[in-house]
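User: I'm writing a tutorial on reading structure tokens. Could you give me a worked example: one chain, its sequence, then its tokens, then a sentence or two explaining what the tokens reveal?
Assistant: Sure. Here is the example chain.
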Amino acid sequence: LGLALSLDEKTVFVANREGYQVQILDVTDPTNPSLLSTYDTFDLAKDVALSPDGKTLHIADSSILINLDVSDPANPEELGYSWLPHCASLDNFVCREPNSLVLSADGAIAYVESTKYGLVIADVSDLSSPKIISNLDLGTRQWAQGASKVALSPDGTTIYLGANELGLMIIH
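And here are its predicted structure tokens:
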């Protein structure tokens, strides 16, 4: 389950794995959240990250990195997407496990971590055509050993991966 909060703290974006969708909720009244809209993903929605300007939601589903215009949260529009490595089709099991997504401070680079394909770095500056620029094998291809969360230092020079059994990985 991935979550992102809008800059004005009135909207929450929820990656709903079971529903194959992202739910967009109005939380203006936190005691009574209401559903604004949904976006059906290609596969299991795993994590979400909001761009620094709050207008674009990046979604990591089981096989695709999706860019979604959420400037009008009630009417999200797909801008573009890119297959993650080894995901030429939804039938390829090796691509099924992204766990975490984080953006660079300027929103131009997305980092997607997976127990199956390691760390994927994508250029998302062209929202209509995100491009995979690097795929780093972390040597954590076992379900129990895969990293479960990725974080980026504020200056963008260090990547931190929290791994289930391997502990903390730091990449400079």
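What the tokens reveal: The CA atoms of residues 101 and 112 lie 5 Å apart. Residues 89-94 have pLDDT under 50 and may be disordered.
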